[in-house]
Amino acid sequence: MKTDKHANNIVPFSSNTKLNRSSLPNIVLSSDASKQRIEELQIFVQDVMIKGVDYGLIHGFSKPTLLKPGAEKLCDVFGFSKTAEVVNRIEQWESGIFAYEVKMKLIRKDNGVVEAEGLGSCNSKEASFKQQDPYTIVNTVLKMAKKRALIDAVLSATRSSGLFTQDIEDFLKQSNNKGGDDLATKYQLQTIFSIFNEIDISIEVIKEMMKMTYNVNHSTKLTKKQASDFIQDLLLLKEAYKEVREIDIQKNKNQ
Predict the structure, then answer these.
(1) Which of 169, 128, 141, 145 is nearest to 85 (CA)?
(2) Over 90: is that where the pLDDT of 85 sits?
């Protein structure tokens, strides 16, 4: 009985029948179908996802960073359910050190197949938590690890790493040797001011953070790299404060 070599959308690398097909995998999607998927994803990002909510942009870097709301939207549109598992944890209550590593599984709702797994970790010694009591942020640290695992899994499952990066840290590591002594750009300063206005925290605390970390008392004295690092810290702090407020709101509803 003859079989269709293109059955189930499987396209061989070559039509040469002498090729040992067991030596290489076949391409499941044709180039046109693959291109169409990428274009549909790009259109979804442009039409549905919101800058500053679903993804963040930092001036001077080519790709935005995917944020939790954006990852949730991609899960919905691709039809994924998700399960989280804490695979490693450190809870040193005497010293106030907490760390978690989380595995996130994305499962297709139509057939129950695990589409991708992601890993994420977070600990209470990270820069964004320096000014906080470690005993009050245990749940926040765990949630941050879950968020990072989710984004890692979503980027893998949706093949969207060409559009997004997982964390802004990826950009900052690349920028270590660029513009180290140049002062922060106007756009960076505007970004710092914008994030600061969204966080319920006093200007004195912000100044203290800059003083302790960079030995400056005003954002205009930050270098480009310091400003990028500080933006990262503020974004993480913003996310942490948001989660704390959500917990408080939920507690008030349950009372």
Answers:
(1) 145
(2) yes
